[in-house]
Amino acid sequence: MGDQEVKLLGVWASVFSKRVEIALKMKGISYEMVAQDLSNKSPELLRYNPVHKKVPVLLHNGKAICESLIILEYIDETWKSGPSILPEDPFARSTARFWAKFMDDKIHPAIWKIWGSRGEEREKTIEEATEHLKTIENELKGKKFFGGDEIGLVDIAGNFVALWLDVILDLVGIKLLTKEKFPRLSEWTDDFLSNRVIKETLPPREDLLAIFRSLFGQSN
Amino acid sequence: MGDQEVKLLGVWASVFSKRVEIALKMKGISYEMVAQDLSNKSPELLRYNPVHKKVPVLLHNGKAICESLIILEYIDETWKSGPSILPEDPFARSTARFWAKFMDDKIHPAIWKIWGSRGEEREKTIEEATEHLKTIENELKGKKFFGGDEIGLVDIAGNFVALWLDVILDLVGIKLLTKEKFPRLSEWTDDFLSNRVIKETLPPREDLLAIFRSLFGQSN
């Protein structure tokens, strides 16, 4: 793979950029991270993702692939060596895609709504998030990771639940993802965060906390 | 395939159900359409799509696959005979997925916003829809269909643009998708609608117009 150029236009603390980094590291692909400043978008970002102008963008030998879940499928289809991100079986693949989409459509917005709300409205956003988290708690029953014994598409898509969610709840001052209420999600979080590639790739919790504090101020 | 049971829980006029029907017919798969009444959801729908409780749901030998774009990928991966819905090459696949997602994330909501708005607000929704339609007009340059010479994932995902959009604009009394403003999309619409499978599958324009009128009343 020495003749391959792999670049990632990304942002250090971005949930979506980190998904791609996890996948590349799982597959053992060397890549250059080209950090983006979203307040002053680079000509490279505007050129390679003219439609959405968002990170992450994977550049593979000059070809641009956008949208994090689509990038994960591209990586899995392009580099067959290393652990698989999606399973082989079409039904298992559809199940993985379903839950990865659920992370993006339901879990991710629900968590951000907690952060953006106050008072009574926040109570409602917590209820909504709790309901969606219970849905994935239920899906994890009897399994170590979403796809079975190994980290796969849904776990990578859910990196947000394992780390960012906890940081946000900490800043907001809410205990939500407790071992009592969410025993499977709590175990999953521990298993996910103790994986070598994940540990190497995700930012340290304290750094993320500091950055959130500095970016958004204390939220309460 | 005589030993395979393929059922589709769907709704007659649904853009999303029709995507699945197109794909099944393209592949030559016999299926039973089980019409759903969304105002009184069936035990079957609640059982097989407990998370979203939405159509379409594909039941293949009792296994349920939900979310129309995910179902399209499942069909393509399961029945290798017949025309391909996604291309072989990973980069071409990622491009197809990108535009199919764009149909769902941008085009579809923009069109519904036109329908749901009035007066000045409607002017804004038309501007927004025009901008997104120009993006796909541009993507079609130099190609017959989104993936090349044959109908594929993005065209099927865009069935809405070829038929429902025209019906909605007719009811609303707006000329938007003209040959002058959108020459490529206009040609694409003609090519798409004159395809044998598409003609067989999509509802007749007049029937759709009548149903929209009866369901929603004249909008202006």
UniProtKB/TrEMBL annotation, chains A, B:
It is an enzyme of class 2 (transferase). Coiled coil: none annotated. It holds the Pfam family GST_N. It catalyses: RX + glutathione = an S-substituted glutathione + a halide anion + H(+). The keyword Coiled coil does not apply. InterPro entries: Glutathione-S-Trfase_C-like (IPR010987), Glutathione-S-Trfase_C_sf (IPR036282), Glutathione_S-Trfase (IPR040079), Glutathione_S-Trfase_N (IPR004045), GST_C (IPR004046), GST_C_Tau (IPR045074), Omega/Tau-like (IPR045073), Thioredoxin-like_sf (IPR036249). One of its GO terms (molecular function) is glutathione transferase activity. One of its GO terms (cellular component) is cytoplasm. The keyword Metal-binding does not apply. It comes from the Eukaryota. Its EC number is 2.5.1.18. Keywords: Transferase. CDD domains: GST_C_Tau, GST_N_Tau. GO terms for biological process: glutathione metabolic process. Belongs to the GST superfamily. HSP26 family. This is Probable glutathione S-transferase.
